[in-house]
Amino acid sequence: MQYIISEGIFMKTEKQIYQIKVVLAGSKPSIWRRILVPSDISLVKLHDVLQIAIGWENCHLHQFKYQGKFYLIPDEEFDVGFEREDLNEKKFKLDQLLKTIKDSMVYEYDFGDGWEHKITLEKILPFENKEKLPRCISGKMSCPPEDCGGIWGYYNLLDAIQDEDHPEHDSMLEWLGEGFDPEYFDMDEINSVLARI
Q1: Bond from prior residue into 144 cis (ω within 30 degrees of 0)
Q2: Which of 6, 45, 125, 183 has the most CB atoms within 10 Å of its CB?
Q3: CB-based contacts of 39: which residues, under 8 Å, 6+ apart?
Q4: Beta pairing class for 69-72 and 86-88
Q5: Distance CA 192, CA 18 (A)
Q6: What does the domain layout of the chain look like in residue ranges?
Q7: Fold of 2-142+186-194
Q8: Strand order in 86-88's β-sheet?
Q9: What is the pTM of this model?
């Protein structure tokens, strides 16, 4: 049992398991992960889970967007000139935002490339202490490489490396390095890393 404050009122809540689906916006075929997390996971911890489950390298800023509000780790340098009230993600838990099945929010990673992920609450399950959480239970496709220019840059990269006659074929292969497979997805590898956090 836990307590949360909602609009100044203490509310008793039961800890549950949330099954969330995370889809990278604009990806076709869809790049996605299905993850089980405790309902009371903090947004800052959820960020860590998403980085691992999707395959990012955690080297850029991020934010969560829900109902017109922005949840992030405050950064005074980045904040200059913005006329909005940002909320500290360290102070919020997932179940304070997503409460009912089909509720969704956006997780944005790397403000330059603008990777947006839609997070949808698919199921609310009873909490069991023996359940190993967080845990990825399914997914498809590899995470795009960091700094490739967002979703459009990623598809341009794929076109270049798959077409030997493309003018950027050699340079993109050199930049990307060997062994990139856009269809690669290894759930066991993801879960072995998640188990360490």
Answers
A1: no
A2: 45
A3: 13, 15, 16, 17, 18, 93, 94, 95, 124, 127
A4: parallel
A5: 20
A6: 2-142+186-194, 143-180
A7: 3.10.290
A8: 86-88, 69-72, 62-66, 104-109, 115-126, 16-24, 32-38, 135-140
A9: 0.87
Residue showing tokens 């890393």: 193
Measured between alpha carbons, how far is 91 from 93 in angstroms, rounded to an integer? 7
As a whole number of angstroms, the distance between CA 37 and CA 132 comes to: 9
Relative to beta strand 2-6, strand 32-38 is: unpaired
When pLDDT is cut at 50, 70 and 90, the band that residue 163 belongs to is: confident
* Calpha distance 94→41 (Å, rounded): 6
* Bridge partner list, 138: 34
Number of H helices, E strands in the chain: 5, 10
- Using alpha carbons, select from 197, 150, 157, 196 the residue that is nearest to residue 177: 157
**Strand duo 69-72 + 62-66: pairing:** antiparallel
How many Å apart are CA 157 and CA 142, to the nearest integer? 14
Nearest one of 94, 8, 86, 16 to 49, comparing CA atoms = 94
